[in-house]
Each structure stands twice: as structure tokens, then as C-alpha cells.
Amino acid sequence: MPLIPVSVITGFLGSGKTTLLARLMRDPAMGRTAVIINEFGAVGLDHDLIETSEESFIQLSNGCLCCNVRSDLTQTLSDLAARRARGTLPPFERVVIETSGLADPAPILHALMTERDLMGVYALDGVITTIDALLGVATLDQHEESLRQAAVADRIVITKTDLAGARAEAVRQRMARINPGARVVEAANGVIAPSVLFDCGMFDVSGKHPDVGTWLAYESGAHVHHQHAHTEGIASFCVLRDQPLRAVTLPLLLSALAENCGGDLLRMKGIVNVLEDPLRPVVIHGVQHVYHAPVWLPRWPSADRRTRMVFIGRNLSETWVRALIDLLDAEVAAETAKRSGVVA
User: Fold this and answer.
1) Is-contact 164 186, C-beta < 8 A?
2) What is the rounded distance in angstroms from the CA atom of residue 61 to the CA atom of residue 246?
3) Domains of the chain (ranges, CATH numbers)
4) pTM of this prediction?
5) Residue burial 263-278, b: 16+ Cβ < 10 Å; e: rest
């Protein structure tokens, strides 16, 4: 029986991994794909933003996958294979793993290449890394995880090129120095054909950054407890609301976050129940100083219709963020009532 190819999609916080995967999963060529998503934090949102079969979708949101690779990833892949063999799961022909934006890819790749329970069923097909054309160079300079994610890639996808202008070329030049063996492509809004990214062949360190072999060799060592510094000073929290927010509150919130949090807010994303149109949620995104316009979905993707916002960053006050949301929405409500009173 042929081995099932496993592709890893990685990239730093806000670099476009979920957008890319969501677009890919709409392609008929991805019909028999099992998806594993790891999110940093206790509450995940990506499963509501990606259209895929619930039966072949696994969400891992109890921390960073690279720190729990032996227990979580290995067990998950083993369970998927067992369910496939029993016929209780559709016969998927590919597995795609989307890592947390803070994941060091080396332990994940090492597990896929060396775990005996996995080697007889799966084969690491390649690593796809997303790099933000707007913030990519600065992120590479500031975060070791981003450098490692780019260094191990077989395919590098430069995202947000429609917004970056000439900065995309600087990212391309940096990628050529970090990982000359990788194929570099561009994708605006995640639009790219699966054939460009998958079927890379067996993972090979040749042509990649010279440190990749060292990182993988380190994973073969006798250390038991995998500790990574990426979580030092970085925290996440989720704001859950049963009460809907007013539409006008959203741009005010994004503007306030950009002005007051700056680069300390590494990532925020949310799916929001809006008072004026409760049947259609709004998706909001932000990365450091850059916040995108809210996007309306045609319908709720699941039965959970609460507002859920995830915040990841340094020196963030959860109390302040919650108070900000409440204050802005209360001010919008008061102004709306005042205007209604004048009209009446």
C-alpha cells in the first residue's frame, strides 16, 4: 500500500496560513485530504474559517504543536490511520498539517521522518511556508521561529503581495539567501493551485539553509523535555461574548488596537456576531500595526454563534481589551440612541 503524503504548512503569526489553506480546500483536487490544525491558545477559530469535512478535521489547540509533538501529533496521525483502516473515516489520500504561527518546525519534521508508528503509513512530502510581504523582513529579524520556518521550506509562499508593493521584492531576496533551494511563489488572498505546492517528493535538506541538518540532528538527541523560548513573554487570551456587537464598533476597535498596542499585538483574529445582521458573521484580522477591513461571511460556519476574538502578543492586558470592547460598543449604542431620538 502506498504511503500517505503529509504536507506541513507553517509560517509566522498572521502570515496567511489559514487563508491559504482555506482557499486550497475549496479546490476539488483537495477532496480527499485530512486536515490537522494547531492553534496557539485555548480557543481555536481556524476550523470555522476552513471548509472541510468534519470527519477528517482535527483541531489541536492546547499549545504549540512543536512542544507536544510526540504525544499530540503522533497520536493524532496514528488515530487517523487506524480509523481509515477500519473504514470509519473516508479514505483520505493526503494529510495537511497547519502549525501554530509560533511553532519551530524541526521537531515536527523529525517526528514525521523517524517515528516508527508513522513511517509505515505516512511520508513527509514537503514543507510549505508563508511569508508576509508587508512584515516579513522585520519578522525574520525579530523572531527565530520565522527564520526556521523559512529555512526548512520546500515551497515559500509570499503573501499579501497585492498590499506590499516593492517590499515583496525585498522578501524574495531575503528568501534566496535563507533557503536557495526552495521554490518561491506569490499568492494574493491565498489564491494558488494545489499542484504548485504539493507533491514535492521526499523531504531533503540539500539546498536548504545549512543549519537545517543541525536542527534535525538535535532532535535526535537524548533530551526528553522539549523547551522552546518562543513562548517567553508571549501570551494569548480569547474574548467570548454572547451579546452581539454593533457594526460600527468593529472599525473603532481595530483603530484603537493599532494605535495603542502596536507591535506588541502579534496577532488578533475573530469571528463576530453583529447586531445588525445576526445571520452573517464578520471576520476581523490584525497583525501588529496592520489591520484588514472586516469581511462578512455569507453564513455562520458552525452552530457556535458567539463572538470569539483571539489575541496573541506581549504585554497585553486582557482586562484592558475587554473594557475597550465594552466601552466602544456602549458609546456606539448611546450615539445610535441619541441619533434615533433626534430623528424621532
Assistant:
1) no
2) 29
3) 4-229 (3.40.50.300), 235-343 (3.30.1220.10)
4) 0.83
5) eebbbbbbbbbbbeee
Q: How many residues does the chain have?
A: 344
Q: How many CB atoms lie within 10 A of CB 170?
A: 13
Write out the H or E segment, with its range, that includes residue 106: helix 105-114
Task: Return the C-alpha torsion angle 153, 161, 288, 327, nearest 10.
Answer: -130
Go through 33-50 and write b for each residue having 16 or more CB atoms within 10 A of its CB, e for each that does not.
Answer: bbbbbbbbbeebbbbbbb
Q: Cα separation of 62 and 53, whole Å?
A: 22
Q: What pLDDT shows up at residue 210? A: 80
What residues in the chain have per-residue pLDDT under 50?
A: 52-53, 222-226, 343-344
Question: What distance in Å separates the CA atoms of residue 19 and residue 115, rounded to the nearest whole number?
Answer: 30
How do residues 32-41 score in pLDDT, each as one tens digit?
898 888 766 5
Residue 341 in grid coordinates: 431620538
What does the pLDDT read at residue 225?
47
CB atoms within 10 A of CB 256: 15
